[in-house]
Amino acid sequence: IIGKMGMMYNTGRADIIDRAEKREQELKNLESELRAAKDQLDEYLVRELLQRAEGRVIVHTFTDKTVKDMQVLASKLTLANDVLVLFASASEQKVICMHNGSFPVSCGALFKKHLSEYGGRGGGKDSSAQAGFPSGGQMVSFLAYMTEEVKRAME
Prior knowledge:
By secondary structure, the chain is of the alpha+beta class. 55% of the residues lie in helices and 17% in strands. The chain contains five helices and five strands.
């Protein structure tokens, strides 16, 4: 093992620990830079989504975001703004709903009431919910339906 690690780090046995610690620090630095870049991108997306919002409802489908990424972005939007967010992840076939608690809409109750009609599974609480779907078509249909339901509930 030590010989293989020496070849991997291109160093002698005595310097393996130093090289491993150096690589670990480099990795931590890269992770920090990536986190900062993601935060900067999220701030740009928040501004763009707010500009394109129709009233107080923001609906968007992402091709490359995970549910976790969407939740972070939705939290940033709803923390600083009085908006309701409906996001979908095309890559994961999932939908999330989130608001800051000031809307007459229960995300969890709406999801629970209509998910089975679209083959989805999930749930949530008043201010947030998420659901997954077996197909992209079912997810898109559910998102369109939820968009109309939310807008109706807010009238």
